[in-house]
Amino acid sequence: NFPPNSQAYDIVGQELTDGFSKAGLGFGCTYRENLPLWRIDYVWFKGLLASTCLVQNSGLSDHKAVRAILRLR
Question: What predicted TM-score, i.e. pTM, was given to this entire model?
């Protein structure tokens, strides 16, 4: 739960790849579900390629869900 311009994002991003930054379209805002203004939820991975990454309503949280399709290199 941190924005892409944060120190935490930079630290995690040194070891892992943010799926939305590689394969997402638009802003990717995930918080709050009813009026998303912040991108604070991610699919992080290492050693894979992201084909698609998108944000969608979850109905189960106050955050939108992030879904990624990953494939082997």
Answer: 0.89
